[in-house]
Design a protein that fits this description.
The protein is mainly alpha-helical. The protein has helices at residues 2-19, 24-33, 38-62, 68-91, 96-130, 142-159, 165-174, 180-204, 210-229, 236-255. The protein contains ten helices and no strands. Its main location: membrane.
Length: 256
């Protein structure tokens, strides 16, 4: 199985490098397909996402593509929510079967929402840009940003999905004048502390397979490099819809 995990990491890393689609929405369903229980799949994928996104933060910071004010307010909502969610999972007396069922259902809904975000992202962005209202350059809607952080903290902790496609859309809804590069950099910078805290929380509950994590990283790091260098050679406009359709079917199956 070690080779299978390395190949899975390679494939997911390649697709992420090629399309920018979040690794969690691909990796977690693959881990479930390998027979790994939902809680361990989510916990392992959260730390996997934290490690793979950390390099992205360094690159974006070098190019000054991170708005740390927005990142801070998002994290102020998401990190405490992640801790509270993990506390609830471990202290509310839920048995293992119930926890796994809850995670499967949340994972299913998160996959379907992510698929919608991937399919209709260009249209949603155009609509938001069309209806944007002029605001001062330093305008920062703190409470809405905090609320978005709370929502992402809950969804990501239970499913390991949502920090990417969903996070980008909701941040853009609040900050439609934010340049695309800065939007992506800010989303990645927020995802790192969120996935780190949520992942460590799951690890404290025993929902972590470090050997599996190592194999996934061995495959994914060269996969990301290869995919990012082939972006122009592959028809992304066909690949993204195919991935979204796959996520819808997978999500619906998990919910049912």
């Amino acid at each position: 199985m070690e080779l299978a995990y390395i190949v899975a990491g390679l494939v997911v890393g390649f697709v992420v490098g090629l399309t920018g689609v979040g690794g969690g929405s691909l990796m977690t369903p693959i881990l479930l397909g390998f027979g790994i229980n939902p809680a361990t799949a989510v916990g392992t994928d959260l730390l996997y996402a934290c490690i793979t996104k950390t390099g992205g933060v360094w690159v974006h910071q070098r190019h000054r593509n991170i708005d740390w004010r927005i990142t801070g307010w998002l994290a102020a909502g998401s990190v405490p929510t992640a801790l509270l969610t993990v506390w609830g999972l471990s202290n509310l007396g839920l048995d293992t079967a119930t926890v796994n069922k809850l995670i499967r259902v949340m994972l299913g809904f998160a996959l379907m929402l992510t698929a919608v975000a991937i399919l209709f992202k260009p249209y949603i962005l155009k609509l938001l840009l069309k209806n944007r209202t002029p605001k001062p350059a330093d305008h920062l809607p703190r409470l809405p940003t905090l609320a978005v952080g709370v929502m992402l903290g809950f969804v990501v902790t239970l499913s390991s999905i949502g920090a990417g496609a969903l996070g980008t859309l909701v941040i853009f809804a609040l900050y439609p004048l934010l340049p695309t590069a800065r939007l992506v950099g800010t989303e990645i910078a927020h995802a790192v502390p969120l996935t780190l805290v949520a992942g460590l929380g799951h690890a404290s509950m025993g929902n972590m397979d470090y050997h599996l994590l190592g194999n996934l990283l061995i495959g994914s790091l060269p996969g990301i490099w290869l995919g990012s260098h082939l972006t122009r050679q592959v028809a992304e406009k066909w690949l993204r819809p195919m991935l979204a359709i796959m996520m819808v079917f997978t999500g619906a199956k998990l919910v049912m």
